[in-house]
Input
Amino acid sequence: MSPDVEQLVQRLEQLNEDLADLAISRLRDSIDAGGDKLPVDEKLITRARRSVEKAATLLRSTGGGEPEFF
Output
């Protein structure tokens, strides 16, 4: 994997962790406020985190080259 792609993967992994932390924070805030439903923004944050995780996985699996299925 090229250094440029490796750097992007590392940034995506960090963003993934940041989004996970934010989602957990939203859940804690909701629980602390007595909420009994999942916050809508937590669901969106989690969806975004999954997309970022998929992007990092795709870049890692291709070694930075063109994916075979494109």
Q: What stands out?
A: The chain has one domain: 3-61. The longest helix spans residues 3-32.
